[in-house]
Amino acid sequence: MDSHAKSRLQVISNQLNSGKDLKLQQCSGTDSKYRYTLDNPLLSQEQRQFYEDNGYLVVKNLVPSEPLQDYVDHFQKICQGEASAPLLVVMRDVAIAKSEFVPGEKAVTKIQSFQNYEPLFDYCRTPEILKYVECFCGADIMAVHTMLINKPPDPGTKTSRHPLHQDLNYFPFRPADRIVCAWTAMEKVTRANGCLVVLPGTHKEPLKKHTYPDWEGGVNKLYYGIQDYDPSLPKIHVEMEKGDTVFFHPLIIHGSGANKTTGFRKAISCHYASSKCHFINSNETVSPETGHEILQLARKRVGDDVTITLPDVWKLQSRLVQGTNYNFTF
Q1: Rounded distance, CA 30 to CA 140, Å?
Q2: How many domains does the chain have?
Q3: What CA–CA distance (Å, rounded) separates 53 from 34?
Q4: Residue of higher predicted confidence among 305 and 112
Q5: N or C end of the chain, less CB within 10 A?
Q6: Would residue 20 count as lying in a domain?
Q7: What is the 3-state secondary structure (H, E, C) of 150-203?
Q8: Which cofactor is recorded for it (predicted)?
């Protein structure tokens, strides 16, 4: 375990041993006419109502090409072992993991938890993105989950698919309405290379039970899916150009299809939350199996000698990007 992570986790351990409780604070709401957005002059009336009704919003050409290319360059350095950072996670598709060794970026399907790697974390601080995040989270903003996704060409096993799911299944903090994901296409994203699929309006539904789908060829780690959603609900394939960004609610049901092309499909994303969100007991989640697996993975990274809870895991990989950190402190 690296010294940076051990130092922060020692703080956790000391506080747990001393019985110090977290101070929980609720987030303030907005005009009763709106639930999912906050009063902010940036969103047009049409955009605001679209998000209220559908749970997602696409903003065209929000992130310039130059920083996106920088992120690709740093992704390649990480894949080649030339760069790293505390707590950063490098993941491979289950089909690749079971095959012969593949070198470089072709072996890596996702970089996760890059909050301590400054060149990639710059994405989370993009001013154009944060302006929109304020419309959903308010002025005090934490980056709580970071990913650079390198969806691989599907080898025929369909393991490059991501089952339909709700992101709130992974997050032990509330309220859900003050959480939003920003997902930016790093190249043209189409149905052919596995664009996002959303079920509009499902952000108004409660959190559903998530389990691993019974897919031939296996399924990637923590790729849980909903088994009892209504298959007759309309689905929207969110095709995007390079630099387009989609913002979506953590309860909207979404996933992505298989990459049927010969190239990798790249996207970068960050989940944001108001720092005034409060943490809940992991037993309150619909899928305790998810929390248990997240804790198992965390203990592999930080060692079994430190007591750690699910809220601790999320605090450890969260980072303030704007305003004041209220409840994501140790």
Answers
A1: 15
A2: 1
A3: 10
A4: 112
A5: N
A6: no
A7: EECCCCCCCCCCEEEECHHHHCCEECHHHEEEEEEECCCECCCCCCEEECCCHH
A8: Fe cation; L-ascorbate
Q: Is residue 241 part of a domain?
A: yes
Kindly state the helix (H) or strand (E) to which residue 320 belongs, with its residue range: strand 319-322
Q: Which amino acid is at 192?
A: A
Q: pLDDT for 97-130, tens place per residue?
A: 555 555 677 778 899 999 999 999 999 999 999 9
CATH code for the domain in which residue 265 is found: 2.60.120.620
Summarize the confidence of residues 188-202 as an average pLDDT: 97
Confidence of residue 168 (pLDDT cuts 50, 70, 90): very high
Residue 2 lies in a domain: no
Exposure on the CB side of residue 259, measured as CA atoms within 13 A: 20
Q: Is 133 exposed, middle or buried (0-12, 13-18, 19+ CB in 10 A)?
A: buried
Residue 5 lies in a domain: no
Tokens 């894949």 correspond to: 79
CA distance 328 to 318: 7
β-bridge pairing 162-165 and 141-151 = unpaired
The Cβ of residue 202 has, within 10 Å, a number of other Cβ atoms equal to 21
* Residue range of the domain that includes 72: 27-320
Radius of gyration of the chain (CA): 19
Percent of the chain with pLDDT over 90: 62
pLDDT confidence band for 295 (50 / 70 / 90):
confident
